[in-house]
Amino acid sequence: MSNKNQEFSELNESLEPSIKSILESIKSSSDLETLLLYKKLFKKNVPLNLRSYVSAFLLKEYLGKPRRKNTKKAGEKSIFINIGKNRRVYPSDLIQLVSKTAEIEKESIGNIKILDNYSFVNVAGEKADKVVSALDSTEYRGRKLTVNFAKKDI
Questions:
Q1: How does pLDDT run across 5-54, given as a tens digit for each residue?
Q2: What single string gives the DSSP state of each residue in the chain?
Q3: How is the chain split into domains, by residue range?
Q4: What residues pair up with 57 in beta bridges, in sequence order?
Q5: Which of 127, 125, 123, 121 is nearest to 145 (CA)?
Q6: CB hemisphere CA count around 58 (13 angstroms)
Q7: Cα–Cα dist 18/51, whole Å
Q8: How confident is the model over 47-79, as pLDDT tens digits?
Q9: What is the pTM for the complete model shown?
Q10: What value, to the nearest 5°, has the Cα angle with vertex 77 and ends 72 and 80?
């Protein structure tokens, strides 16, 4: 099977339930007047030869990118760090900070979630204590860091 055919069959398997769900919603919709209005607008504004492309594009936009599943590995621990987006911190900054300060490999660092004022970093379980003790009370970009284990895992 060629790469394109394999791609198509994988996409078909992932989208088929969503398309069926959309079709069921249309069939059971009680707001047919609104659907007819959209249908008229679609017919009026989209040339006949482009309708299937527009439909495909709208389906792609509606379904969006597939959501990434929580990829936290077994044994990882979440660590809280009191710096975030407001300090212009990016995942690459946190990876560098954690790996250099705690002297651990970048491969030991998992998911990173950066919020406005604080961040969470997943670290391999056996390295987590080392990371917390190395980073806590150190100074980063003019701010004293508070680093401890997160109450909830990310």
A1: 877 787 788 788 888 888 888 888 778 888 899 999 999 999 999 999 99
A2: --HHHHHHHHHHHHHHHHHHHHHHHHHT-S-HHHHHHHHHHHHHHS-GGGHHHHHHHHHHHHH-SPPPP--PPTTEEEEEES--GGGT--HHHHHHHHHHHTT--GGGEEEEEE-SS-EEEEEEHHHHHHHHHHHTT-EETTEE--EEE-SS--
A3: 3-63, 76-149
A4: none
A5: 121
A6: 10
A7: 20
A8: 999 999 999 898 888 877 655 555 667 789 999
A9: 0.55
A10: 110
> Which tokens sit at 148?
């401890």
Tokens linked to 88: 């212009």
The length of the chain in residues reads 154
Q: Locate tokens 């989209």: which residue?
A: 46
Question: Per CATH, which fold does 76-149 belong to?
Answer: Alpha-Beta Plaits (3.30.70)
* Listed residue (129, 87, 131) closest to 106, CA to CA: 131
Q: For residue 19, give the amino acid letter.
A: I
